[in-house]
Amino acid sequence: MQKIIPALNAENLEDILNLLDKSRDFLKTGDWVHLDVADGIYTGNKTWGDPDEFELKITENFKYKYEIHLMVENPDEEIKRWIKNGVGRIIVHAEKIKDISSLISLCGSNDIELSVSIGPEVDIGVIDSYIDSLSNIQILAVTPGLAGQKFTESSVDKISKLREKTNATIEIDGGMTEDTIEVCFDAGADVFVSASYIFKNNNPKAAFEKLENAAGG
Predict the structure, then answer these.
(1) 124, 67, 117: which is closest to 93 by C-alpha?
(2) 84-102 pLDDT per residue, tens
(3) d(Cα 114, Cα 134) in Å, to the nearest integer?
(4) Residue ranges of the domains in the chain?
(5) Contact at 8 Å (CB) between 61 and 26?
(6) Which of 58, 116, 132, 214 has the smallest CB count inside 10 Å?
(7) Which Gene3D superfamilies does UniProt cross-reference here (predicted)?
(8) What angle do CA 35, 41, 42 make, to 5 degrees?
(9) What's the CATH number of domain 4-214, 3.40.30.10, 1.10.150.20, 3.20.20.70, 3.30.1300.10?
């Protein structure tokens, strides 16, 4: 299992493509990449999020697997725009879902994994009624939107409690450093998503490898 997934959080396509170019130094064909899509309504900021550009400019040139993190006000509608070639997983926020059964069915029929994100202000119990239908669950350890925020310590307890409830893959996103990854790994997290630690480093490859080592190698 790929333990570290680099996250792309940017306002325009050019910046996204630049980050993907940097990723060539430490990712292999078929590795996972995380794309943040913030709508400026659910979130305080807006990022790049054009599914047509994704299909034409990104998946044609960068042969990775992509998870799309929809930090949006209406995921039930927005998700329909992202049923595209190259999307392997779509992450939506638990408290904004209107019809989870429809989302599970839509993703399943398009061979896309559905993941549900639980943010800092959301109790993990919100997904209890359908937790057994999920193979991937995200704990978001920062306020949805901006990259580079500080890790929320209460996320460690959420990971532990969630691990008691499910065997699904637990993905932790936000504020990832060598130290926070070690704590989250010990609590039961499987996959770690990082943007700033990797891409704001002068040597993204070295930063990526440090995070891999912190996650158990």
Answers:
(1) 117
(2) 878 999 999 999 999 999 9
(3) 7
(4) 4-214
(5) no
(6) 132
(7) Aldolase class I
(8) 65
(9) 3.20.20.70
